[in-house]
Amino acid sequence: MGSGGRRVALAAFVVLVSVGLGAPVWAQSALDDLVRQSSFIFQGVIVKAGATSTSEVPVSPSTAVVKVNQVFQTPKANPGLVGREITVLMKSSAGLKSGEQAVFFARGWMAGEGIALQEVGRIMGRGGADLPRRVAAARQAIADQELRARVSSAQLVVVGKILRTAPRPPADPSAGGSEHDPQWQEAILQISTVLKGDRALKEVVVLMPGTLDVAWATSPRFKPGQEGVWILQPHPNLPGYTALDPLDVQPLAQQVRVRRLLAAPRSSP
Known about the structure:
The chain is of the alpha+beta class.
């Protein structure tokens, strides 16, 4: 097993360590790994092992019905899980018993007449009073890693305001667009502060998709007067820059955070 596999294995089977008066804690790095892999994090009790709460999932030794007592993280599309009985496909069913409590780290699996999740990892017990804080810290660390990757790869990071937007004329009006033609729009970005890149720049063109095609659905759209921190890459074929990732446009309030990430030393691969 490679180093990556060992790391995931450690994340899935977190070792409990005793400190102080014997209260169990988990290494934050292991918790970070579990949070990174999970869209659902909740504390619950196993109502029945080897069972399901929905006919859409066949019963097996690896399924269990779990009653959710407390939610630490869940997608916006799945609110109101507290008190519900859901089906969990366990990563390991060895020693699974009805009545046991655990903190479950899981990914979405099925949603229909009921909710079924696939377990990523599990920590037996209630989790401890500081678990919400530690999960929040793990989520922040993961978010910082993702944003650091964007600013590290960017050619230009600036604070500025969109002055105006307009469609960009096609280079060849007679040519038909491709199936996922972005229908580029031009946004004129007035720069107030350059955080990374050419400090002489005062204004740049930022290209944004003008279509809602699925290929561009998550790309940010800009409006005149919009202010923020812009994480920009040069377009490979057209004059101007792009900010196509949702992370590439940050609110002004995130300027201090972006500065901190730009100043942080890059970690070794």
